[in-house]
Protein 1
Amino acid sequence: MLLQRNKLGSVRPPKRCRSDMDTTSTSDIVIINGNSHPDLANMVAERMGLKNGGCSVFHKSNRETIVEISDSVRGKDIYIIQTGTKDANNNIMELLIMAYACKTSSARSIVGVIPYLPYSKQCKMRKRGCIVSKLLAKMMCTSGLTHIITMDLHQKEIQGFFDIPVDNLRASPFLLQYIQESIPDYRNSVIVARNPGVAKKANSYAERLRLGLAVIHGEQKEAESDEVDGRYSPPPTSSSRTRTTSVSVGVPEHPIKVKPPLTIVGDVSGKIAIMVDDLIDDVQAFVAAAEMLKDNGACKVYVLATHGLLSSDAPRQLEESLIDEIVVTNTIPHEIQKLQCHKIKTIDISILIAEAIRRIHNKESMSYLFRNVTLED
């Protein structure tokens, strides 16, 4: 390369044409992952025709997390694939350390691909606790992440906790496609919400499939709004006197909630009941709902969810339950659980994540992923 001199004799670099500056190749993409879900990271890299980057994450004898990145990440776009599992705390620390390692190594951008965001259910104030999702969001932004790709957040409002862009992908197109192609006579089905809190999601499925809707309501309901919130001090008693409150007035107490008996709003007799939710972890509520659906005449019971965490002895409970089939995506690894319960089926969503990465890297619109029902493999 020849260097040019200006009139003052100083050296200046040669001019670059606009096409050279605007062109972005796949060599600028580096995909790395932690220990949470290496199979998903390999599938995404394979779909994009890339090699998984050289990053090793391990733990010392005192359980400290060590991250070693063997390849250069200077000036490159880094995509860290790390989901949440039953080992959520280690998953988070691995992600934060990997992001900070890339930041201090002068990476151009660092995108966190987190199919299941840990602590997403702790997105509201409970008693005298805190909103853990907001704390986690602040930690991720501070670590160096410049973008987040996730899927089916427990509450969409969690995106507001982040100071960086968040793309909340949807797994519903894959689940809808499974219903249409893998459930025989799905036209004779009814979409079921196991509690009123899931009614909005169930209604969306029912409208897209042109099916009926049923909602289970009663004492089995465990909505977040029913949890006791003890942030406020108890009202003053008759023995206490203040300058602003009279003893005779007092503060009215909230009436105690009395839940009605467990009932089903909707007709499920002789139909296939399909329960939908965003997460399956503690399955007792699903098992109880399936028993009630069968008692009310449902011929089959399916459970569809995006994230299959399936903690504790959930596989055994599902195997012994009246549920005929459980369908989840591979946002969380559950191969061991599938060995314990043959009813669990898995839908691969790696193509959706790969397409999202490709579009973000090429600065293309993401609305296509929310507008179209299916993706061609």
Protein 2
Amino acid sequence: MASKIFVSLGVVAVVMGNNYKPPAAYHQPKYEPKYEPEIPACSKNTTKNWCLEDSEYPAYEVVYELDKHYEAVVALYKNVVAETANSVDTLTKLVDETYLCPSATSYVQPLRAVNTKGKWRVIINKVESYGIKYDQHARIEECEADAAGKACPLVPTCYESKCLQKGIYHRFLVYDPTDYYFPFAIETFKLPASCACFVGAFSL
């Protein structure tokens, strides 16, 4: 049997008698995001709620999405950097300081951390996209292990005193692979900021 060809609106349909079968409907592949573990492997090597080293850091995926959403991400990053620069001035070296309570201070670049909602997040750090290096710093000061709750060593014993760990809130640009349309956001994290000395009443 001869084939019949119909042309309508630029579409050519070839009808092969009763043997014609319509093509299968096209189905768009379902997007399946790569979920990060609720508790990352790096947390197993530390008692802190942040990781400075992470062998499973998704650097390739982060850079890919940074390139894809360049302008929008840069706008968020500039907002975070401006705030961070005012607080730590992007310092990496410490200067001599005197403390009433023994403590350890450092300027760090966390790769993962627990946010104020108790969720581990991937922090955009130590990666580069279109010539922009993404670096987010935080100043951390922690009471020495045997200092918290003890009397302040530089305060006279005639005063009631106690060393207390204080925290401060930081805002970081984070990567969330479960958000297909824009996998970046600014979230809040609480990190140790000082080992403060509480001084109470005078007593003989």
Protein 3
Amino acid sequence: MLAPIKHLLSNYRVVLASGSPRRQEMVKILGLNAELCPSTFEENLNMADYKEFSEYIEATALGKAEEVFTRLSAQGDNKNLIVIAADTMVTLGEEVYGKPKNAEDAVRMLKKLSGACNRVFSGVVLKHAGGVRKFTDTADVYFSQLLPEQIQSYVDSGDPLDKAGAYGIQGPGGAMIERIDGDFYCVLGLPLNRFCRELNKLFLEDLSS
């Protein structure tokens, strides 16, 4: 998917504004060698200030990208610097599910998600010296009806405690899911198909002008 710009990528420093090895592995799948640089952006935006979930999540990802871009730019020339930032949240109706505060909160979330369809939003920002590209992708995730013992066992494993919505599709949590409508990688936190399309546009349109 990145073949049209492969010869250009080697001229750029690509940085992932994240401490997530999972997201780093996803960009490696594409043959993209990105450095990890966790953002110090404080994720405390007020959702009430945004009309749509997508606007809120893109603003959060933009905050992460701009913080890392500014910090790295202070260390030297940023002409060939590209910062990738992403944020993911889970919604059920009008309720938003971030990372659980503790095990009890994870149990609460999973009881709500049990037998229901939740929507995952993944917002992505590509920040470079000339500007920004940003987008949001969504996927609908259908959960089976879960027994209390199944929820408790999953929470006890520790797997859901650092994940939006208190579940991870790539681990044991994947067994709770009947089907997905949308990009599997959107649920993982970086929708690879749309990401590749936007990165190609960035190089072939934004950076070529």
